[in-house]
Please model this.
Amino acid sequence: QVQLVESGGGSVQAGGSLRLSCAASGRTFATAVLGWFRQPPGKEREFVATIRGIFNATTYADSVKGRFAISFDNARNTALLQMNNLRPEDSAVYYCVAGSYVPKDPYKVSNWGQGRRVTVSS
Model:
């Protein structure tokens, strides 16, 4: 069984920065890839970024490339999402996800964290 414990997020003005972390525990193969999806108010969940920890291989949504950076702390089995130059449209509940493979289709993702709210004011 996979457990994902998230922390971070909060409120910031446009142009500011926030960080999210996700500590994963459970079967190693089920947490080989960690990442985040987000769900803006009134919208569907959407892919944000993933990292394959052992290779530090990263994938980003086009909307966050160049502003967000995902990294992996191998010693703590924790993924970090550094969010810079935040925009009001980044406001959403951010969910940590994990799997041996994490597709960009949220309906195909099995393991979800509890979610952390990020609010960016203009």
